Amino acid sequence: MTVVGDRLGDINIADPAKYERGVPHEEFHLLREHDPVHWHPWPDRSNGFWAITRHADIVTISRDPETYSSAAEHVLIVDLDPDALEARRSLIETDPPQHTRLRRLVSAAFTPRKVAEYEEATRQIATGLLDEIVAVGEGDFVAAVSAPLPINVLVSILGIPTEDAPFMVELSNHLVDGTSGVPLDAGAYGNTTPLTHLPFDSPASHALFEYGRRIGSERKADPQDDLLSRLVFAEFGGESLTDVEYCNFFQLLVFAGNETTRTAISQGMLALMENPGEFDRLAQDPALVPQAVEEILRWASPILYFRRTAMRDTEIGGVAIHRGEKAVMWYVSGNFDERVFPEPHRFDVGRTPNEHVTFGGSGPHYCLGAWLARLEVRVLLEEMIARGIRLELVDAPTRTRSNLVNGLQALPVCVVSAERA
Amino acid sequence: VIAAMAESEELVAVQIDDAVCVGIGACVAAEPLAFEFGAEGASRPVAGTLLPRERAERVCRNCPSGAISIVPPAT
């Protein structure tokens, strides 16, 4: 045990640089086996967090927002002053009943029935992007397909002009440390707000707030049948969303709609190229597509973790958690938990059941965009199969330097076969 | 309306805790005859619909919010 104990003490799963080399699966495995509720120093021992790495414990915490709050502190591993926390508070940093109220404002746009209405538009966007990369014959799949597909679907739901989609991608890229590769000056985009008061400490959030305010006032003057109009006209007991609520909601929707499905698509495509036999299996039996979508979601784990804060002294798995301490749910570890997924490191497009925690371990914060993400990945797979599009990796992918997003910066591919649809 | 009928199966009614439901729609997707979306962004059971116990239990279990339960028999 001493050897294992020493290795556990050395574990660092929060270092963003580590993820540039890939998810540290060996460390997560050690934690799941030997210390599934592990005190993890960050940045030092006194200020650490509980690393929750088993699937069952992630589900338990997700379902108990009274004990494990999203609102008392931030959902990222940061300590914020109360005024900074308020300035940055979005839907995902609320608890019921405030959460329920805010969430229901937008839930109608993301139900399975409503999402089904976006299928045709999604298919058009996907086929357009695939046509382009097939015509060129090679390229960076992230820039060519993974990034533009989700953001173009999202801007049409929100009601943002299509020509502004690249600007939304640009700003969203800056939010995740390392996603853009371009460090921003504090005063970028004309920002004068202290960075601690902006989501992700990023001046790009200021730019998103400003853009959101401008387009929101346009909708206020000239309402449309879109989600933005719904947000600006929302009322609770006669009160509209405050400026802070509105801006953070807008920022969250753009970020979540851009970064997460992009990562699922990029990681899914990488997995299919690295496991060509699984792509063959899928192409021969397209009835497997829904299962393949779930396997891609499990495998990709686009959001690596979210954090909760204990509201009272409690325990999980026999380990005492004290009031105020951080409980960090490593979804990426839960998705590879041997207790739930036989042979977790085998990419299996037919995996059933597949109770992954990619959308969260259930509970009120279960991903709003879950059905939309499934639609986008499914349509892309269907169109690739229908056109016989097969890709090969031509160079190693570049991974994102982030402990939050399991992203790929670049996925250089060439098209090895394609038929006209 | 009875969503599905099998003579041997026990039929139960389901309820949604309106304070908990956030309108994810997993129930509507799984049992479209038994659940619908309300005007307030939440789901609700279709009035008078019953489900076989096994399917009702599954829909309760699969609700991400844990908002659905089987109506206890009147005592």
Question: How would you describe this structure in keywords?
Answer:
heterodimer; A: 421 residues; five-stranded mixed β-sheet; three-stranded antiparallel β-sheet; globular; B: alpha+beta; two-stranded antiparallel ribbon; two-stranded antiparallel sheet; 6 strands
Please, could you describe this protein's structure?
- The complex is a heterodimer of chains A (421) and B (75).
- Chain A has 421 residues and is of the alpha+beta class.
- Chain A contains 17 helices and 14 strands.
- Chain A has a 5-stranded mixed sheet with strand order 1-2-10-7-3. Chain A has a 3-stranded antiparallel sheet with strand order 4-14-11.
- In chain A, strand 5 and strand 6 (239-240) form a beta hairpin.
- The relative contact order of chain A is 0.17.
- Chain B is of the alpha+beta class.
- Chain B contains 2 helices and 6 strands.
- In chain B, the strands form 3 sheets. Chain B has a two-stranded antiparallel ribbon. Chain B has a two-stranded antiparallel ribbon with strand order 2-6.
- Chain B is globular, with a radius of gyration of 12 Å.
- The mean pLDDT of chain B is 88.
- Chain A binds chain B through residues 63, 96-97, 99-100, 103-108, 110-113, 359-360, 362-364, 366, 368, 370-371, and chain B through 19-26, 28-29, 37, 40-42, 64-66.
Short description:
With 421 residues, chain A is an alpha+beta fold.
Report the principal-axis shape of chain B: globular
Biggest β-sheet strands, sense, barrel of chain B: 2 strands, antiparallel
Distance between the termini of chain A: 59 Å
- How large, in whole angstroms, is the Cα Rg of chain A? 21 Å
Order of helices and strands of chain B: EEHEEEHE
Average pLDDT figure of chain B: 88
Q: SS-based structural class of chain A?
A: alpha+beta
Give the biggest beta sheet of chain A.
Answer: 5 strands, mixed
Instruction: Give me the Rg of chain B, rounded.
Output: 12 Å
Strand content of chain A: 5-15%
Pair of chains with the largest interface and how many residues each contributes = A-B, 24 and 17 residues
Shape of chain A: globular
User: What proportion of the residues of chain B is helical, as a percent range?
Assistant: 10-25%
Number of separate helices of chain B = 2
Quaternary organisation of the protein chains:
heterodimer
Biggest sheet strand order of chain B reads 1-5
Unreliable stretches of chain B: none
